User: Fold these one by one.
Assistant:
Number 1:
Amino acid sequence: MAGSVKFDVKARLEEKERRSQTVVVAFSMQLTTKPSVVKFEVEGTATITGKEMEINKMLEVDPETKLPYVFQKVYQHTFTAMYLLSTLLNAPPPPVDLLLFGRGSQPTGSMVAEPEAVSGLGEPPSQQQP
C-alpha cells in the first residue's frame, strides 16, 4: 500500500527570537495521505547557532526545493519520530526524501530541532481502503 499513497504537506516556519549567533524558529508540519489513511502533525522549535553568515544561509530558500534550508533539517530530525509512529500504527511511513533534503550543497553551522508534539492519527488496518 505504501507505493499507492501520496503525502500532502502543510508547513509553517516563523522566527521567534534572534540573539548573537543564535536564532530560534518555531515550526509546524502536517503530513496527510491520499487516500486518507494517516495524518502526522509535528510542531516545535529549532535553534540555529553559528556565525551570522551561517545562520543566514540556513534561513535562505534552497532554489531547488523552494524551502528554507532550516526546514529541510527540521524534516530530517522529525522524520524518525513519524516513521516510528507509522510502524506502530501499521500505516504508510512518510518518504525520507519528501523534501529532497539530500540534494545540492548544505549550509554549515548547527541546529537542534525540538519537537514539542508529534502525533499520528490513523484508521485501524481493518478500515483502511486498498
Number 2:
Amino acid sequence: MTAYVITEGRLYIDGKWQDAADKQTAATVNPADGSEITQIAQASEVDTDLAVDAARRAFDEGPWPRMSVHERARLLSRVADLVERDADEMAYRETVDMGKPIMFSSTVDVPIAIQLLRYYAGIATQLDGSTRGAETPTLNYTLRRPLGVVAAITPFNFPLLLALTKIAPALAAGNTVIHKPSPVTPLTALKMAELFAEAGFPDGVVNVITGPGVALGEALAKHPRINKVAFTGSTEVGKAIIRNSADTLKKVTMELGGKSPHIIFADADLDSALEYAFFGIFYNKGEICAAGSRLLVERSIYEEVVQRLAERARALIPGDPLDPNTLFGPLAHQGQFDKVSSYVQIGRDEGARLVAGGEPYTPPGRDSGLYYLPTIFADVDNHMRIAQEEIFGPVLGIIPFSTVEEAIEIANDTEYGLASGIHTRDLKKALTVAHALQSGTTWINTYNKYDSTTPYGGFKSSGFGRECGPESMESYTQIKSVWVDIS
C-alpha cells in the first residue's frame, strides 16, 4: 500500500485554504500506533461565521442554485470521477485516520462514495413538481426549491460515506454546504474539499471547517443564517443540536444511535446466519450505528451459536489496518477505547458470561495502538446496561428466547430503532417479524446491506429523516405552490 504524504490540514472557506483565525491547530492521530499524522486547523466561532457568510453569499448571489440542473449533475459526476481517480489515496486516508482496515476502505467506503455522487448527480435532474386541480379557473402547480445553507455534521466511524450521504443530496438540490467532520477523522473531508475545487464548484458552495466538535456543532446549530442541519452521531448530541436549532426553526435530520436486535430462529440456515451475526457486530470494529449488538437466539440452538461465535471471535486477531489481509483494526480514538473497556467491565459486573475477548490487545511487533479483542457476552438479560446502552464497539450480547412473540418483545424493548436482522427459512415468519420490529431497516437472511438508492434512518431515539434514496431529497428541499389566474 502506497503511503501518501498528508500535509497540514487547513480550513476551506469560500474557495480558499486558510488557517484558523486564532492560528490554533491540533494533531490528528493514527490509532494503530499513536503517531501524529499531521496538524489540523481548529476553527472557532469566528471561522464558523466566515464559512456561513461564504455559503450564504454563494446561495443568495452565486450561480449554484440558479445553475441548470444538467450543469449541477455534470459537476457532481466530475467529483465522482476524481474520487475514482484518487481512490487509493482516499482509502489510505480513511484507514490511517480511523483504523478501518484498508480491505474495507478500498472495497466498500470509496466505491460507495463514488456511487453516492453519481446517484445524486442523476437525482439532480429529476427534482420536479406537479400540476394540481382547482375549482377556480387557475393553473396551480408546485416547485421544489433548495433550502439554502446546509450544515453537515458527521461522525468518526464512516467519515467519507456519512459526509456524502448529506453533501451529495444537498448539492444536488442546489443548496450550499458547510461540512464539519469529526475532530478525530478530518482527512477525507479535506481531500474532498480539494476535489470539489478541482471539479469546478463555485467558491463558497462547499466549505469545510475542522475543530472541536461540541463548540462548532453548537455554533452551527444556533446560527441564524443556516437553514438546515444534517447530523449523524450519538442520540445525546443529536438532542442537543435539536435544542440549539429550535430558536431559528431549522430543518434538521438526525441519524442517531442504535442497539439493533439480530434474531436467529432455529430453522435458519445456521452457517449463513452465523456469518452475518459475526460481521453484523465485528465489521468496522463494531463502530457502526446499525451494529447487530444484541443477538437474539432461539433456545434450541442457543449453546451451539454461543460456542461457534466464541470460537470465531477468538480466531479474529486484530492487526495493522494497512495490511490488506487485516479484517479487524484498532478502535478509532482513545475515548472510544476507554468507553469499550468500561462497558466490558459493566458486563462482567452485571453477571453476563464472558465467552470471548474482554481485554485490550497488542499486535506482535507493536508497543502501542488502540486494539481491543472482539468480545462476546452470553446469557445477557435484555435489561442489562450492555443490552440497553449503545457501546459502539466490538461487544456482542447474546440473549436467548423461546417464542416468536418473545423475540419481538425483546427486540422492541429498547429506546432505539435503527436496524434489525432476522434469520429463518420460513418466509411467513420472517415477514411477520419484520413488520412487527420497530426499526427503520430490517434485513432478512442478510445484514449490513446498503445502497445509495435505498433510504436509511431510524425510529424512536435513533432519529428521524432518511438518508439515501429519493426520499432524502425531502430533507434538502421545500415545496413552493404557484397559482396562475387563467380566467
Number 3:
Amino acid sequence: MFGKTYPNPEFRRYELHRVWVVEARIKSGYRHLAPHRIYYIDEDSWISSEQTDYDKNEKVWKLVETYPIPAWEIGAPV
C-alpha cells in the first residue's frame, strides 16, 4: 500500500463528502511561509481532509492530503 515516502495512488479510495471550505489569511503585519490557506473540512468527521497553501505571490505552494483511519476502539477517525 505504501511507497517509500507516500501512499501508492493505486490503493487510494475517493468518495464524495460534504465539506466546509474555510479560507484563512494571515493577520496584517505578520509573516508566514503560507500567508493564505484553504482548508476542506469533512462535515461528518470534522477532519481537515485537504489543504491548499499559497505563497506570498498567491501561487499554489503546497497541497496537503490527509487519510483518516477509523479507530474502532475509541469510535472516531484519527
